[in-house]
Inverse folding.
């Protein structure tokens, strides 16, 4: 059985930085055994949170070697469909979270996040910690 890739949500990066931990060092260890996935939304959310050029450059290098999920017209249709379905069920979630979820579905990835919104998306596999 193959191990699913991990789409790392911005909440993971930002929480670790606030704790004074280096999320890139933590994820570098994980990348030895699991593929890491990202998308434009996560990249932009993390990038805008970085205050100084050197850390931003380090994150840019890290993101550049991750598997990128493209946000093409097909993905936007999937996001629209998911949003419509969840809204009709009374589950209204932030659009960036829906985009990230659809990117994870497309990549066959589990989402590593501290954001509990992701737990409300049916069929999405979610982690709140890295397994040793």
């Amino acid at each position: 059985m193959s191990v699913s890739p991990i789409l790392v949500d911005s909440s993971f990066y930002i929480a670790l930085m606030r704790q004074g931990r280096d999320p890139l060092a933590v994820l570098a260890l994980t990348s030895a055994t699991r593929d890491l996935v990202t998308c434009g939304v996560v990249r932009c959310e993390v990038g805008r949170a970085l205050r100084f050029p050197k850390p931003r450059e380090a994150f840019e290098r890290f993101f550049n070697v991750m598997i990128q999920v493209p946000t093409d017209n097909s993905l936007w249709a999937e996001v629209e469909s998911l949003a419509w379905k969840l809204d009709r069920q009374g589950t209204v979630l932030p659009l960036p979270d829906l985009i990230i979820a659809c990117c994870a579905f497309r990549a066959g990835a589990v989402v590593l996040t501290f954001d509990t919104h992701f737990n409300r998306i049916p069929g999405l596999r979610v982690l709140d910690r890295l397994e040793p």
User: Anything to note?
Assistant: The radius of gyration is 15 Å.
